[in-house]
Amino acid sequence: MQTTLSPSPSFTRAAWREARLARSSRPAAEPAVATFERTGQIANYPRGKTVIEEGKPALKVFRVVGGALRSVRVLADGRRHITQFLLPGDFFGFTHESEYPYTVEAAADTIIVHYSRRAFESLLEENPKAGRSFLNVLSKELAAAQNHLVLLGRKSAEERLANFLLTLADTMARDAKRQPTSTELPMNRSDIADYLGLTIETVSRLLTRLRQRNIIDLPSNHAVVFRDRQALEVLSQAGAE
Amino acid sequence: MQTTLSPSPSFTRAAWREARLARSSRPAAEPAVATFERTGQIANYPRGKTVIEEGKPALKVFRVVGGALRSVRVLADGRRHITQFLLPGDFFGFTHESEYPYTVEAAADTIIVHYSRRAFESLLEENPKAGRSFLNVLSKELAAAQNHLVLLGRKSAEERLANFLLTLADTMARDAKRQPTSTELPMNRSDIADYLGLTIETVSRLLTRLRQRNIIDLPSNHAVVFRDRQALEVLSQAGAE
DNA sequence: CGACCATTTGACTTTAATCAAAGATTGTGG
DNA sequence: CCACAATCTTTGATTAAAGTCAAATGGTCG
């Protein structure tokens, strides 16, 4: 099950696949999309601000430059679920519908670039390469969503949290060569809970427990240090097959 | 919250959106894709047969003609999750990777059309309309996956099952004008459980309970009749917002 | 400083899982 | 076509994991 290519000996092949997917799921730049990049307009959103709202006309597409956002769905009785966190490099706002199918809010102070949907659509028509690039972006998003389906459907609370911490760290350090040994947590406990299908109390208890076991350190509410990454990888049950 | 356009008075706007999404998420035919359709080769797969396998080279793309398949991911310790059921009209096997990221098995006896990946790729390059069509297909798949994330993350066992029965019925009767009053269940209890993040026992108990409350009827293990669709809609908590 | 908000911790409850066993259905070979 | 094996489904008793309710602690920002 092990491979000499793996820097972390306990990593199975499947775990590797998952880690790779997670990291590559938010590409720094698909080539043709990069061209487009220059025409966008930049904007700042403070923590808590709504960027797009479910049901409103989908007139713009966005790309995250800095900070973090949450894509939110709320049930009639108030239960909330976060379908994804949007981090630097991620696109959002693209849909086949005329209205946005979800709400996006700034989970921390955030910088975003936005483009008109019309400009985006005509780019797709004129430049098949761009269309193909974007197909890849969506295909990667879909793969990430499917990983998350498995996490929500079949993993324990502890596995979910361990998985989340590792994936977040890898994503935040997308461009880095070395595996990160710590990560910022731009979102609060409540956001993490709603992303992992847990309650805030469970998230808090699990973090405390990981700290007590010397697997992580919590220097502040918005940072995690990996003291034993390998233990975390084992707990995360990353593997398939 | 109600609208006169809704045939079912208890349906909220959000519930409608969800139902519409679910139904449209597997389009009968995106125009440019239909052209492509003719070049494919047809094949039969008996129940249980594996069509594609996680990790194997992704050389073909597929479209379901008849029957039902399951897209499966298995954790190291044997826990299984079904990320989606593939029903007539659905595509599968498309990925940006060189290998398939999931396994697909026939959940019932199935008919499939398959195309070479190369032919498919060159179609995308030559025909921007086809690319755009396929972007829509992926975008709809993504929307469906996000609905399912909310279901797994925040809905109770009963809500999940009610939701599943309604969505399945609507999808199976994609082309019908009237809302279906019954549906075939091409997959077994175990597949349903692994799709909804539950156990087979819980699925069975819930079905029995719905029958005892006269909300559904179970004329056979592979069929459901809706005796009180509205009650089922209420239980499914379809709504957002 | 003090109010407000986020986080942690504790006691208890609930939901769905697990373990176990009894029916029911399906498929197969004689 | 029947009989029996194998598989699938249902039902019951018990357990475990995570949720709920409640309160204390800690941090941040006017």
Question: Which characteristics define this entry?
Answer:
homodimer, 241 residues, four-stranded antiparallel beta sheet, DNA-binding
Quick description:
The structure is a homodimer of 241-residue chains. By secondary structure, chain A is α+β, with helices and mostly antiparallel strands.
Topology:
2 copies of one chain form a homodimer.
Chain A: H1 13-24, H2 31-37, E1 41-45, E2 50-52, E3 60-66, E4 69-74, E5 80-86, E6 91-92, E7 103-106, E8 110-116, H3 117-126, H4 128-154, H5 157-172, E9 182-184, H6 189-196, H7 200-212, E10 216-220, E11 223-226, H8 229-236
Antiparallel strand pairs in A: 1-8, 2-7, 3-6, 3-8, 4-5, 4-7, 9-11, 10-11
Helix pairs in contact in A: 1-4, 3-4, 5-8, 6-7
Chain A binds a DNA duplex (30 and 30 nucleotides) through residues 156-157, 188-190, 198-205, 207-208, 220-221.
Descriptive overview:
- The structure is a homodimer of 241-residue chains.
- In chain A, helix 3 (117-126) crosses helix 4 (128-154).
- Chain A is 42% helix and 22% strand.
- Chain A is globular, with a radius of gyration of 18 Å.
- In chain A, the strands form three sheets. Chain A has a four-stranded antiparallel beta sheet. In chain A, strands 2-7-4-5 form a four-stranded antiparallel beta sheet.
- Chain A contains eight helices and eleven strands.
- Chain A is an alpha+beta fold and 241 residues long.
- Chains A and B meet through helix 1, strand 4, strand 5, helix 4 and helix 6 of A and helix 1, strand 4, strand 5, helix 4 and helix 6 of B.
- The structure holds a DNA duplex (30 and 30 nucleotides).
